[in-house]
Amino acid sequence: MSFISGEFLLFVFITVSLYYIVPRRFQWVLLLLASYSFYLFAGVKPVIFIVLTTVTTYLAGRWMGRFAKNEKKKKKKILVALLLINFGILLLLKYYNFIAVNINPIFRIFEYDVSMPLVNMMLPLGISFYTFQAMGYAIDIYRGKYRPEKNLAHFALFLSFFPQVIQGPISRYDQLAPQLLEGHRFDYENMKFGIQLMLWGFFKKMVIADRAAIVVNTVFPLYYGYDGSQIFVAMFLYAIQIYADFSGGIDIARGVGQIMGIDMIQNFQRPYFGTSVPEYWRRWHMSLTNWMRDYVFFPLTLSKMSNRLGRWSRKRFKGVIGRQIPAYLPTFVVFFLIGVWHGAGWGYVVFGFYNGVIIVLGMVCQPLFSVMNRKLRVNEKSIPWKVWQVVRTFLIMMVGKTLVRANTVKAGLAMTLSAFDISSYDFCNLPHRMFHMGVDFNQALILCTSCIILFFVSFLQENGIEIRNTIARQRMRWRWLIYFLAIAAVLVFGVYGPGFSVGEFIYRNF
Fold first, then answer.
1. Residue 145: CA atoms inside 13 Å, Cβ hemisphere, count?
2. CA distances (Å), 215 to each of 224, 360, 403, 422, 454, in order?
3. What is the pLDDT of residue 381?
């Protein structure tokens, strides 16, 4: 069931209505029934996998909870077994065919009479999200952060809560579970702000992302038929599309939760205002980045191998580099895994490698950059310098996203070279050529206007202005005028109807 459907809105309306009708002590039961009903819309077979992850994680958590703090070795064996089972399932379902396609030619080169058969397997809805959420819970139990949940149904709700199951955010147990289990009274403010957030999400998804997708889907497959300026526009719009698509879906999910008094963690913080690639990742898909930081980066950094490497590097290299070398490998591993997490394909592998290399090189070269800026007398606090950093970071990430979206890595590289080859631009016919990319003048005008609105709202938020609170303080006639305009924008300018089809969320496939 897609968020962008009448069925979903009806489902939410019925669920919320019943949520505030039933006694508060039974609200969590209703949410559990609603969540599994929502998941069943994707089919019966996918439910088997989320149930398997739920049961194995619950039992492992209870088992680890029986051991004392000084019995870490026993707890570790249970945790490792659980991680192997659940990440093994994820690896099998998501990456098996990719591995088979790439390893079979190696068998043939060495004349082995064996091959891995390709299997047509359907990827269960949200498996990457609920697997990471479950394993984060298990690792926290192992670390003694909190006691394991005793009620299997309570834990099942934590993993299956329907607004987050499609594309996150990847929640932490101690932040989300108490909210799901406690009763909530109807609150007009929560209802108002939740609906506002949902409307903003629908606007980003249906008006911006799905319209930008028309240009992207027109140019990317046949990029060789377009000049550099058109390819640059398509690359730019794909960066906008995936942001508006993913953040729009998260806004809808968080809005549904807020209507019921449940505050889900923030997953985006205006990433395209980041002044560096590391800052971009601290703002983009924050729940995944934080998961990788807490459960991959810190364990690797604090490992015995890292300590030995640190002692060696401080002896061999003086200054910042000697102290930072132990962080290079964990940093690269984290961002490589983030790339591969997104999907099975060489584009994702290259994307992870691309981000890891850029971030590590940035760490290595930071002292040199600081010296250069001092010698050139660059005012690092000035607005022009910050604008340059933002633009530079956006372009770096735009190229990375192109490598994933293009049909092949080679095609992505060719598009990038063409897009940044100014000599290939046909400036005389540039305005005319812009309307040969799948959209007419009116569609292009709507897309440009909506992107400007997105930038303006993000700019205000970046400067500490809370848009929803600002709207709420307005007089009733102005407030409701804004609401009606927002609804009209989605209904009138949303991409649906004859000749169009609402696109499924991109991150639904991850």
1. 14
2. 15, 34, 17, 21, 18
3. 87
Q: What is the DSSP letter of 427?
A: G
CA atoms of 173 and 155, how far apart (whole Å): 9
Q: What amino acid occupies position 154?
A: H
pLDDT at position 498: 41
The domain ranges of the chain are 6-185, 187-268+406-510, 286-377
Residue with tokens 């019995």: 71
Separate counts of helices (H) and strands (E) for the chain: 22, 0
Is the pLDDT at 243 greater than 60? The verdict is: yes
Indicate the burial class of 257 (C-beta count within 10 angstroms; 0-12, 13-18, 19 or more): buried
Cβ pair 234, 437 in contact under 8 A: yes
C-alpha to C-alpha distance for 374 and 416, rounded to whole angstroms: 32
Q: Which two tokens stand for residue 489?
A: 């924008």
The answer to whether 24 touches 184, Cβ cutoff 8 Å, is yes
CA distance 164 to 168: 4
User: Which burial class, exposed, middle or buried, applies to 297 when counting CB atoms under 10 A from its CB (0-12, 13-18, 19+)?
Assistant: buried
Encoding tokens for residue 39?
């998941």
The C-alpha atoms of residue 347 and residue 409 are separated, in whole angstroms, by 6
Per-residue pLDDT, 499: 43
Name the pTM for this structure: 0.89
Torsion on CA atoms 214, 215, 220, 221, rounded to nearest 10:
50
Amino acid at 420: F
Cα–Cα distance for residue pair 397/391, rounded to 1 Å: 10
CA pair distance 129, 164, nearest whole angstrom: 8
What number of residues does the chain have?
510
Please state whether 285 falls in left (phi above 0), alpha (psi between -120 and 50) or beta: left
Contact 40, 46 (CB under 8 A): no
Residue type, 507: Y
What is the Cα–Cα distance from 317 to 210, expressed in whole angstroms?
A: 51
Residue 137: burial class (beta carbons within 10 Å; 0-12, 13-18, 19+): buried
Q: Is 490 exposed, middle or buried (0-12, 13-18, 19+ CB in 10 A)?
A: buried
- Report the mean per-residue pLDDT for the chain: 88
How big is the CA angle at 225 (ends 222 and 227), to the nearest 5 degrees? Answer: 120
Print burial letters for 11-46: b (CB count within 10 Å at least 16), e (below 16). Answer: bbeebbeebbeeeeeebbebbbebbbebbeebeeeb
Q: Compute CA distances 221 → 218, 225, 243, 344, whole Å.
A: 7, 10, 20, 19
């070795």: which residue's tokens?
Answer: 73
Which tens digit of pLDDT belongs to each residue from 262-320?
Answer: 999 999 999 999 999 999 999 999 999 999 999 999 898 888 888 787 777 777 777 67
Instruction: Compute the distance between CA of residue 206 and CA of residue 214 in angstroms, rounded to an integer.
Output: 12
